[in-house]
Amino acid sequence: RGHMSSEIHPLGVRPSGNALTSLREDVERRVRTKEQGLGALAALGDTLLLRVLESCAPRTLAALAQTSKAMRAFATHADVWKAAVLETFGGRFRY
């Protein structure tokens, strides 16, 4: 496989720094996609939305991930699932 920077995220998620070099139409399209996929939750901002999702149970995260591409990107975020696993299992697990 190539370098991470040349790989495309399966959900089309790109670092926010790309907005500085992207075409205006491309940025506007991504914003519309996020707003449509998250509805009123889009107003929270990425960091706050992730914080909210960190308080959700794993089943709730799985259900939310099925609602839209935008929500799937947030509900499957590694930090969100880390919080869910630690809440569910505490330190009582091995890998």
Descriptive report:
This protein has 95 residues and is an all-alpha fold. It has 5 helices and no strands. The chain has helices spanning 24-38, 46-53, 58-65, 69-75, 78-89. Helix 3 (58-65) packs antiparallel against helix 4. It is elongated. The two termini are 26 Å apart. Mean pLDDT is 80; it is low at 1-5.
Layout of SSEs?
Elements: H1 24-38, H2 46-53, H3 58-65, H4 69-75, H5 78-89
In short:
With 95 residues, this protein is mostly helical. 53% of the residues lie in helices and 0% in strands.
- Percent of residues in helices comes to 40-55%
Order of helices and strands: HHHHH
Radius of gyration, in Å, reads: 15 Å
Strand composition percent: under 5%
3D shape: elongated
Structural class: mainly alpha
SS summary, helix count: 5
Got a strand count? 0
Low-confidence stretches: 1-5
How far apart are the termini?
26 Å
| Major β-sheet profile | none
The residue-averaged pLDDT reads 80
Offer a few descriptive terms.
95 residues, mainly alpha, 53% helix, disordered N terminus
